[in-house]
Known about the structure:
Distance between the termini: 17 Å
Number of helices: 12
Order of helices and strands: HHEEEEHEEEHHEEEHEHHEEHHEEEEHEH
Structural class: alpha+beta
Amino acid sequence: MVLTKSCRTAFTLAFIQQQQQQQHRTHLYNVRRTMVVSTEKKNTSSNRKFKAAVNAIKFVNRLPPAPQKGVEFATLPWNLNLPEHHYYVHLTTDPASGWTLDHYDPKTDKGILTDVTDDEYKALKHYGQSPLPLYPSTTSINYGTTIWEGLACRRSPTTGKALVFRPQMNYARFARGAHAMCLPPPSYELFMRGLQMVLQNNMHLLPPAPELDPETGVPLGGAKLYIRPMILGSGQQLGLHASPQISLVFFVSPTGSYFQGKTMGGLKLHLETRKSRAARGGTGNIKCSGNYAVTMRPLIDAKEHGFHDNLYLELDTYHNPSPSSNLSPLRQAILQELSAANVFLVLESGEIVTPCLSRGTILPGVTRDSVLQLAKIFKDELQPFMAKSVDRDDVEVTVSERDVRVEDLNNAVEVFVTGTAAEVVPVQSIGTSPDDEEQFSVKFKHGESEPGPVTTKLLEMLREVVAEQRTHDEIHDWIHDVYASPEDFRKGGIKN
């Protein structure tokens, strides 16, 4: 279901009335906050006591407080911003015990995670005042046993609620990665409650709701509160074996876009033919720190040549081409992904295609999956935009996951990349460097000055879902209200 413009206007008026009510609640909130702050001055552990008191008030309000004053959220870079204002969650265990009901019991909503002693959360730490206790022999520092996730929380322009996008998928990937790194994965309930808790205690850093396009009513993007759950081997050892201690951490940062300023003019991508991001049988489909470490040097090199990022290949398909093919080795090579984003092609045939997961070398991105599902569910709605993109009214939209070869780029009218940090970003060109062994270059019909029609529509659909403007039975549980009950937060979906 897609809301009409008149419905969106009605929602906007209702939202204004709701904001007026919220202003009254905010006044009460500020009065209580002043009382708490005056108490803080008499107490050395005031920061965490202040957050505990604020959290109790927020459960009543059901809407997040206004964004922190004095912060230009719209100009924030993709980085760790305002760490002196952050609070993070930290729990520990050992491999034998794993995560138990002592850490969090969903039936009672009690445990180390939610315990409050002397008005202080046991698991909540001030980012600047209580750093993680790490030693030179820490397992994750020596052997790279760190898994992390990236999620986004946004303020809805429709209702003003604080909404998280598809955390169930993040948990599933998180659990798979933890197993791969010999780390005991937390339960889904513990993961979701830790996520909810770190958000509720950092809502002052939630950016304002995005502005709406005056013609379409679609959100125009904007900053977000980024959340990074992590699980790492935090014990001390020299041997190559599982860490004797495990840490589960949730931290946040308000951020802008990963490709800052590139939602209009497209990316210039370098086709990386020398360095490998991942190989079959490795950890390319696991969100572990090592997958990003190997992309840093190639990324710096690509930027020195005027590119924004690298598009990686299955290098074995480049170095071992089929002798019966008429294509050059490079054109036969299979595409993987960017340093931190998945890639999509819109072909002249009407196919929207992205590299498949079956090789185990690319990350199963949450935004990737979301775009695939939206394109399949709403492909009839996409058809006019595809027709405009390929200049053929009778074109049929198809959506697929398969091996995508470099040669397919020559048949693409649009290319875009997806990611939690990036959303949906157009690509204007892909090519090799002058010093690469085999030369290749392609510039796409759409993407240089503005996104193509299909790219634009898919981005709008994604933003409409996040803004509660688009729904469907198959995606009803994609958004989660931070101030829902712990049980409802785990289920997803929005309840009035």
